[in-house]
Design a protein that fits this description.
CATH architecture of the largest domain in chain B: 3-Layer(aba) Sandwich
CATH topology of the largest domain in chain B: Rossmann fold
Number of domains of chain A: 1
Oligomer: heterodimer
CATH class of chain A: Alpha Beta
Structural class of chain B: alpha/beta
Structural class of chain A: alpha/beta
Strand content of chain B: 15-25%
CATH architecture of chain A: 3-Layer(aba) Sandwich
CATH superfamily of chain A: Thiamin diphosphate (ThDP)-binding fold, Pyr/PP domains
Number of strands of chain A: 8
Order of helices and strands of chain A: HEHEHEHHEHEHEHHEEHHH
Number of helices of chain B: 13
Largest interface: A-B, 46 and 49 residues
Largest sheet of chain B: 7 strands, mixed
Helix content of chain B: 25-40%
Radius of gyration of chain A: 18 Å
Number of domains of chain B: 2
Radius of gyration of chain B: 22 Å
Distance between the termini of chain B: 51 Å
CATH superfamily of the largest domain in chain B: Thiamin diphosphate (ThDP)-binding fold, Pyr/PP domains
Strand order of the largest sheet of chain B: 3-2-4-5-7-6-15
Largest sheet of chain A: 8 strands, mixed
Number of helices of chain A: 12
Helix content of chain A: 25-40%
Strand content of chain A: 5-15%
Chain lengths: ~300, ~425
Amino acid sequence: MVNVMDLPEEEFIYPGTRACAGCGMALIYRIALKALGPKTIATVPASCLTVLHGMQGFCSTKISVYHTPFATTGASASGILASLEDKGLADEITVLAFAGDGGTTDIGIQALSGAVERGTNFIYACYDNEAYMNTGVQRSGSTPLGVRTTTTPEGKDVHKKNMPKILEAHGIPYVATANAAYPLDIFEKFKRATDIKGPKYFHILSPCPPGWGYEPKDTMIIGRLANETGFWPLYEVTKGKFELSKPSRRYLEPSKRKPIKEYLSAQKRFKSIDDKTIQIYEEYISNMWKEIRNRLDSQ
Amino acid sequence: MTISEESKPKIDENVMILTGNHAAAHAIRQARVGVVSAYPITPQSPVVEKIAEFISEGKLNARFVKVESEHSAMAVLCAASATGSRVATATSAHGLELMYEMLPWASGNRLPIVLNLATRSLGAPWSVWTDHQDFITIRDVGWIQFMCENNQEVYDTNIQAFKIAEDPRLFLPVVCGYDGYIISHTAQPVKLEKQELIDEFLPPLTHHINLSDISQIKGIDPVTTPHIVKRPEGTAPGYYEYRYSLQKSLENSIDIIKEVHDEFAERFGRSYGNGLLKTIKTDDADIFIFAMGSVASQSRIAINKLRSEGLKAGLISLKLFRPFPAEELRDFFKDKENIIVFDRDIGYGYEGVLSYELKASLYGLKNRPNIKGFIVGLGGRDVRTEHIISGVHKALNDFKKEIFTNKTEFLGLHLDELGDYDESTYFKGG
């Protein structure tokens, strides 16, 4: 386990980007780039990360980025890699695709599925702030049950899509979940991913102060609650082997988990949910962990 | 260089019997592309099947990204081109429409991508047969657009297309159109030039952007404001300046297209008019047919028949559709009297696209010619010589009576065979 002193001092994002105060994604991206280093080319679709990357003529990172239309992240990464192979540079340079939850679970799922099915040697990271935040908080396929967005004023009526499971079903060598509130875990996972050939998929929970309705100073607290309540377990599936990540291990034991209500009531987006929905959440979390327990037992 | 008719390939060891699709595939192979990405669609598929075969046989050292959609195919090529590789693809109809979002991305990013389009009509209802509807729908995205009449022209235009696209004064994507089935699946003799001669004509790509050079850190295509941004670190153009530059390059490309065409003609002995349009029997003509692709081919026969009737008919076969060679057309038609346009496409709600674009380009001529447009051959309906001839007669008759209208007339339509056709009720709901 790395500690904070092990993180490279070099920053790959210049200070003063256009990301919001308290942005989970900005932190995730910062740590991921520290792990991957300068020999990386990123491709980014329309998203909050486009905003972070800055305006024409000024690049806010120390790595090159190719901006690409919303639906194309997986294809764009495939194109960069194919060209690097053409030039004999594929072993030297990491191709990183970084997209939001809308760009991944909705409009980009086809291109992503195609890219991983082809065995593309790249890292795809979805930072999941659980709605279309850049366009003003509309619901996405990754928005959780009960969340109020500008297009679900009464709360979303279905659970979020289980994207890591969908990617796992593609039989790819590495799938990991992560959480902005656990940067060392993110760092370690990106480091591990660079040593694996083939498609690597990250699904990273990214708390969003304006979209979720909490104070920017509370991003770490909210992110930790998602883990501590059992709502967002951290794990890795490496060549089919499932492993719970350290920050989540203790929550295999149900009594260790904080009540989901603590997570939900800390955010304005869950304001309209009733007790019945909370009960549905309790069952949802309990079932998710039963599945994890079964998986661990059967390995 | 103005050669009014292309010379036919002479029989020699380099002449192969190839379909239009395979002629395109051979040109892509000889251009030594680095990355190909494509999705199957009729009638284009044999292009990329052949490319896959070349790669598997070691005849082409390229990466073929076999994507799950045409949208992804063009996205792959944009990214691969921006990473510095020479790239190509092929598609048709719905494939091109699915790519549409990526087409202005490619031109806005100034990526020298070459796309072969085996033309096909657009659904609904489903049709796999040719017309030029797919080709004309991309006229406003900033690509150079060629239309070819035969298989040799497909090969020659492809080779030229890479050189034009990659010209450092341009960096623009190019589409080479040719009629589905009529050209794509019909075998003709095609002379393939020696690889060393192609290499001399088409040196390796030197790109203006190259992500693979990681010493140059770039944010490519980020949000670009309406206004110029000035900061201590530098000045960035606004969207408006970028798009102005795209338009100016397209305008300038006309001279470069002629230049590349002439160089090709000089080296290989084959030419296609002036590279923009082909004039056939126009020297003594007073009636001019204006058409492209398969319709122009058919009109070659029609003008001979018209001449045997005593009418001095000539043909302008349009090779370059975008940028539209308006100045050359104005110059050619400035003292001409009668033009009849045959469109295998339609600007729905208006008229045939070649017809209205020609009319617009001749606006302001002192002695404007009479122009009448007809629609022919949508969805693969046969375009017959007698349709062209009847159109010419009808137009001349209208001109005599000074009837000028934008209302379309469809030649070769057989409503009479349907018996109960009624515009208020027919064909609704399929």
